[in-house]
Every structure is written in structure tokens, then in C-alpha cells.
From TrEMBL:
Signal peptide: none annotated. It catalyses: 5,6-dimethylbenzimidazole + nicotinate beta-D-ribonucleotide = alpha-ribazole 5'-phosphate + nicotinate + H(+). Belongs to the CobT family. Gene3D superfamilies: 1.10.1610.10, 3.40.50.10210. NCBIfam families: cobT_DBIPRT (TIGR03160), PRK00105.1 (NF000996). This is Nicotinate-nucleotide--dimethylbenzimidazole phosphoribosyltransferase. GO terms for molecular function: nicotinate-nucleotide-dimethylbenzimidazole phosphoribosyltransferase activity. The gene is cobT. Its EC number is 2.4.2.21. The lineage of its organism: Bacteria, Pseudomonadati, Pseudomonadota, Gammaproteobacteria, Pseudomonadales. The keyword Transferase applies. GO terms for biological process: cobalamin biosynthetic process. Keywords: Cobalamin biosynthesis, Glycosyltransferase, Transferase.
Length: 351
């Protein structure tokens, strides 16, 4: 099993010199100190991550990772597994929410198919076919993936980060598509946080309260089968999904290549949490787009001390919440780069 180098190799730190310059620059701008709130810190953080005096997130790369889950045989989703493959075609044809948002942002969008039960048309535009298996194994009965499958999924994510870097991306976003993946994410979060399934299992694609209770019982079965092992790779292989593992690998790969990362909702945040348990310094490269309405997201965010930029009641996934937050990041950059200083504007700084 060959894992990406970012799994074990120390991640770089943001550039402290550029952070200090950005802090000093903010102090010269025509506004009371701190009056732009988190927009100021956002720009400062980007300066350090990008090692530049003028931060920018004009070039955005979005990778959507798609895969099916064997746990669906437990009846934990309101939608059939065929939807995963159908949505891959919808992404490619421009009809999905993230397709519309990516176009409006001028972002590059790719879809990485890691394995679906349903068939997808050949040669879909923007779709990279890296199928590992038609789906994971039912995690309630056995480990979801083999060590070799886990390595393949992590490598797929790392390769997406490399493509983003090669294309000069200034911001990396990862999204998910996979019927059943909120169940896998809830199981991962329960194992990592030692929390109860009743606390973290949510409605997903629209389950009734009875359906949520059943979902929690399935997660509990998976957690009981998995046992007490808390090693990140073992948890991910036992309870995760191909797309969640790929997002984990993509986040670590992006940080290794010094790219700022904008994290989406529940699924992506759980992937970030797994990655942080392996590489705690990953937090230095993460921005959080939004607070999902999916139950459990708040607990996962709290574990990372994350403060999302938006709270719009969204729970779609597929990187949609992160994409909606990109214009806010662009405004933070514009303010940092374009505001006049007190000296340039001839305005007294109060001293």
C-alpha cells in the first residue's frame, strides 16, 4: 500500500513574513483597526498561505469526487444508488448546482468517478474515470475498503491537488457525490470524536425521523464492528467511502503544494477532520465555507475550532456551500489590495 507523501511528510507552514506584512498593511488602511472583522484576517491568512503581498482567489479549482457506498443495502437513504451515476452525468452536462456556481465563478470544475453501481456514459466532458470498485463494502458488516483501495482513493485526491497546482489554482475546493455518504461520514465522525450516532446522524437526502433513527442504528453497528482503533488510515478504510478518502488525500495534497483550501459542508469537513488527525498542521491551510444544516456538522466544526464564513441552511454537498463563499473571499482580497492608506488618502489616522 503506497500512500501519498503528504500522509506522513510534514506539511509546509504559511509564510510568516508575508503574514506580518499583511498585518502591518491592514493597520495603514483608511478604517478603524478591526472594523472589517473577519474579512481582515481572511486576507492576512491568504497572504501567508500564498506568500504574496496581494492575495487573490480569482483562479479556483473544484474537484468533485463521486462514489457509491455498500451500506446503502441497509436502507439508509431516501434516494436509490442509481442517482450517483446520474448526477455525474448532470455535473458534466452543466445542470447541477455546483456546475452553475462554478460557471458563475469562472472556476475550473472536474468530476472524479471512483466507482458507481450505475453505469455512466463514456467520455463525459470534465469527468475523470478512476473507478476503484462499483462501491465500498457494507461497513455495518465488514471494513468498507481494503488498504489497497484506500491508498488508491487517497492517491486520486492527491492527483487532483496536483492538477490544480499545475493549472495555477489560487484556491482548492473539494466536493462530494455519493448516495449513502452522510452515513459513512457520521460513522467516521463518531469514531474520531467518540460521539453517539444519535448525535451525529442526520437526515441526509431527506430521511424521516424514523429513517434517521434507523440510520443511527446502522452507524452504531458499524462503530461496534470497527472497535477501538483510532488510527486515521484504519478508521477511514473501515468506515469511510472512496470519495471521502479522496477528499482527505486532496486536502493534504493541496496543503503540501501550498494551496489555500476552502472546505464545504459535513462530508468535506469530516474528511478534513480525518486529515487533521493524521496531520494537525493542515488547519493552517483551511478556510471553512459554510455551516451545514446537516446534523453533526456543528460538532465536527467545533472539533477543528472552525468558524465558517456563511450559515445559509444549506445541506446539498457537492461543494455548493464552499462555492457560494468564494465571492466573500474575493471581496476580502479586494479590500486588502485596493483600499487607500491614511497617508495616500490624506486622512488622519488619529495619532
Amino acid at each position: 500500500m503506497t500512500l501519498p507523501t503528504s500522509w506522513t511528510q510534514a506539511l509546509p507552514d504559511p509564510d510568516r513574513a508575508f503574514i506580518e506584512r499583511a498585518v502591518a498593511h491592514q493597520a495603514t488602511l483608511t478604517k478603524p483597526p478591526g472594523s472589517l472583522g473577519r474579512l481582515e484576517q481572511l486576507a492576512i491568512d491568504l497572504c501567508g498561505q500564498q506568500a504574496r503581498e496581494q492575495p487573490s482567489v480569482d483562479r479556483v479549482h473544484i474537484s468533485i469526487f463521486a462514489a457509491d457506498h455498500g451500506v446503502c443495502e441497509e436502507g439508509i437513504s431516501a434516494f436509490p444508488q442509481a442517482v450517483t451515476a446520474q448526477m455525474i452525468a448532470n455535473f458534466a452536462n452543466g445542470g447541477a448546482a455546483i456546475s452553475v456556481l462554478a460557471k458563475s465563478l469562472g472556476a475550473s470544475l472536474e468530476v472524479v468517478n471512483l466507482g458507481t453501481v450505475g453505469d455512466t456514459p463514456a467520455d463525459l466532458p470534465g469527468v475523470i474515470d478512476l473507478q476503484i470498485a462499483p462501491s465500498t463494502v457494507n461497513m455495518a458488516k465488514a471494513p468498507a475498503m481494503t488498504p489497497e483501495q484506500l491508498a488508491s482513493a487517497l492517491q486520486a485526491g492527491d492527483q487532483a491537488a496536483q492538477r490544480a497546482s499545475d493549472n495555477g489554482a489560487e484556491l482548492f475546493i473539494a466536493g462530494d457525490m455519493g448516495i449513502g455518504n452522510t452515513t459513512a461520514a457520521a460513522a467516521l465522525a463518531c469514531a474520531l470524536l467518540e460521539a453517539s450516532p444519535e448525535e451525529l446522524a442526520g437526515a441526509g437526502t431527506g430521511l424521516t425521523p424514523e429513517g434517521v433513527a434507523h440510520k443511527a442504528s446502522v452507524v452504531n453497528k458499524a462503530i461496534s464492528r470497527h472497535g477501538a482503533d483510532r488510527e486515521p488510515a484504519n478508521i477511514l478504510a473501515s468506515l469511510g467511502g472512496f470519495e471521502i478518502a479522496a477528499i482527505t488525500g486532496a486536502f493534504l495534497g493541496a496543503a503540501q503544494r501550498r494551496m489555500p483550501i476552502l472546505v464545504d459542508g459535513f462530508i468535506a469537513s469530516v474528511a478534513a477532520l480525518v486529515a487533521m488527525r493524521q496531520q494537525p498542521s493542515l488547519i493552517n491551510w483551511l478556510h471553512f465555507g459554510h455551516r451545514s444544516a446537516e446534523r453533526g456538522h456543528q460538532r465536527v466544526l467545533a472539533a477543528m475550532q472552525a468558524k465558517p464564513l456563511l450559515d445559509l441552511g444549506m445541506r446539498l454537498g457537492e461543494a455548493s456551500g464552499a462555492a457560494v463563499a468564494v465571492p466573500l473571499m474575493r471581496q476580502a482580497c479586494a479590500l486588502h489590495n485596493q483600499m487607500a492608506s491614511f497617508a495616500d488618502a490624506g486622512v488622519s489616522d488619529g495619532s
